[in-house]
Write a structure and sequence with these properties.
The structure is a single chain. This protein is α/β, with parallel strands linked by helices. It has one domain. Helices cover 36% and strands 20% of the residues. It is built from three helices and three strands; from the N terminus they run E-H-E-H-E-H. A three-stranded parallel beta sheet has the order 1-2-3, covered by helices on one side. The longest helix is centred in the first third of the chain and has 12 residues. The protein is globular and about 35 Å long.
């Protein structure tokens, strides 16, 4: 039996790639609410729509981008 992620908000970085996409789908299947990020933010829309997730453009190498993502605006 899989652990429930109900009431959990999961941040999936690199969600536009194959590993990030698989991770996001599994977390959603287990009940998590998702924030999907990737430097290729435009590529996230189909997955975000599929999973009912928030999608943000985010470069994990940038402190400013982390601040914008934490504020919910991406960057």
């Amino acid at each position: 039996m899989a652990a429930s992620l109900k009431d959990v908000v999961a941040l999936v970085t690199g969600a536009a790639g194959s590993l990030g996409t698989a991770t996001a789908r599994r977390f959603a299947q287990d009940g998590a609410q998702l924030v999907l990020t990737d430097v290729r933010g435009d590529d996230l829309a189909p997955l975000a729509d599929e999973l009912g997730a928030l999608a943000l453009t985010h470069d994990v190498r940038s402190d400013e981008s982390w601040a914008a993502t934490a504020a919910g605006s991406g960057g």
